[in-house]
Structures are given as C-alpha cells and as structure tokens.
Design a protein that fits this description.
By secondary structure, the chain is of the alpha/beta class. It has twelve helices and seven strands. The radius of gyration is 19 Å and the shape is globular. Mean pLDDT is 93; it is low at 300-310. It binds S-adenosylmethionine. Residues 1, 7, 9-10, 13, 100-102, 104, 122-123, 126, 150-153, 177-179, 182 line the site of S-adenosylmethionine (SAM). S-adenosylmethionine is lined by residues 1, 7, 9-10, 13, 100-102, 104, 122-123, 126, 150-153, 177-179, 182.
Amino acid sequence: MRAGYASRTAEQNALFRTLEFARPASQRVCDDPLARRFLAWPFRLVMGIAAIPGGATFARWYIDRRWPGVRTSVVARTRLIDDLITAALEKGIKQLVILGAGFDSRAYRMPRVAAIDTFEVDHPDTQGAKRRILSSLLSPLPERVRFVAVDFKRDTLAAAMSAAGYRESARTFILWEGVTNYLTEAAVDTTLRWCSRASPGSRLLFTYVHRDILTRPSAFVGTKNLFASLEKAGERFTFGIEPSRLPTFLAARGLSLENDLGAAAYRERYFGDRARRMRGHEFYRVALARVVYRPASIRAPTWCSTRRET
Ligand SMILES: C[S@@+](CC[C@H](N)C(=O)[O-])C[C@H]1O[C@@H](n2cnc3c(N)ncnc32)[C@H](O)[C@@H]1O
C-alpha cells in the first residue's frame, strides 16, 4: 500500500460493486447501495461516465477487456460471502470479524449484521479514510461496530482485538476477503493462528490466490495488465497457496477446510450461463474453514513452529 493512502484495491472493489448496483435490481448479482460513497478520484470519474445512458455498460465492458475476470470475480464473491454470512447468522453466530475490511459495507447494509457485534479490522490508512466517509454518512455510527486499526505485518492482532472487546468464547464468523495475497507468509500464519483461537465451531472465510500466479504468471489470462496496476497501487501479490495443500496448511493451524471454490465456479453459481464467456482471475479462490477444538496445551503459539507450506 502507498503510505498515507487508503488501499487502492479496496476502492477498486467498491467501484465494481457500484457498477453492479447500476444495473436494474432484477439483474444484479450483488446489492451494495453504499459502495459508491467510498469512491474517490479517479474512480468518481468512472461513475460520472456510468451516469450517462449506456455509460455503466461501457465502463463494465472496458474494465473486463483491460483486466479480464477481476470485476466479475469480485461481484460474484461479494454475493457468495453475503449468502454465507446470512446462513451463519441463521445458525446463531454472535460476532462478525472483518479482517482487512476495506470498503466492505456489510455492517451497514445487512440489517441482521447490525444486530450482532462486528469488528472491522484494517490498516490504519484505509480505516481512517473509511471512518471519515462513514461519519459523514451515518450519524451516529452503529454502536455494535468496533474499529480496530492493525497492520497485519507489524501489530499484534490478539491484543488489539481483546482491547476492542472481542470475545474468544463467542461463536464467530471471521471474514478475511481480498487480503492474504498482499501479505507475507509470516503475517498470514500469525493471523490464521489467531483465528484458530476462536470458539470451536466458528468459521473463517478467506480468499487466497493459487501459488502459480506468483511463479508462472504468464499461464493466466490478463496477468500483465493486472500486475502493472497492482504495482502502481503499491499492492503487489506476495503470497499464494497451492490448493491441493490447503487442507494440510490449515490443519497445522487448527482449522479444518470445509469448502474451497475457484473464481470460475463461484462465477458460474451467480452469473449462470453468462459465466461461460468470462475469462481471467481463475487463480482467485474462496475458502471456508471451521475452527476445531484443540486443548491449549497443544496450540502452537509462535510463527517459529510452522512449516513452510506455500
Ligand atoms: C483488496 S482490499 C480488500 C478489501 C475488502 N475486504 C474487499 O474485499 O473489498 C485489501 C485490504 O487489505 C488491507 N491490507 C493490506 N495490507 C494490510 C496490512 N499489512 N495490514 C492490515 N490491512 C492490510 C487494505 O487496507 C485493504 O482494506
């Protein structure tokens, strides 16, 4: 990330959700009426174009041509995660933790989320920008949302979360969307170990990229333009996992893999037949894991004890 600035990729995701919201309600894959409020220059310009008749269609077409698969992958995963959070709420989760929240608006647009404790955790630069925008939109801010400013590469998540009132004993849904690929292996490891301390039966939903995108980028459609934009934003991909190793990788950290879907699969789930024409971003994956019970005595507490799995 560029020091002192909100994450550009977080804003870009808000742009994709905004362009989806510009469709008629019956055609939308995801529904995020707040996303547009988080856009700054130059994304606001895109929204100016989208306001002209035919402009939103043109903007979506242009983005898909230049960065194939990114927009459709973000839109479909937003819906997938909304559905999974709704299902978790029905099962009675008591807390939602959003790690690397960016401009995620679930705490403000999903009424049932507003009824439980939500912790928005993010880098101070992105969170500062979000809080400034939110305070001009919602007054007062919802009481049950707590903001936790943390740099996963530097700060101790455990201390920051307990200071914010997070309860390890409460059944929790932890969401870590669009973040692991920007971190170091050590930061991913430490954060996963923190997640595994949640009450048994809690769920962690996180996204990751296939390790091959780091080692063989040319094997994937559209990587050249994608990597050039990420470089410009100061948000290069630095971490990935080989999907076949994911169950072992998680088990070593007290988590049991329940589901692992690639972008082609979750796009097909929500875009239906239209997904057949979508190319790019197939390396992006959404994984759902369950926290398993481990007696405190066998919990591996430090980064030093982990194996290099990626
Ligand atoms: C691609 S955005 C994802 C935002 C949101 N979860 C979404 O899916 O739209 C990446 C997020 O990771 C956060 N992030 C990146 N590096 C971080 C770090 N070292 N510590 C804390 N947050 C970080 C950024 O601030 C940003 O909010």
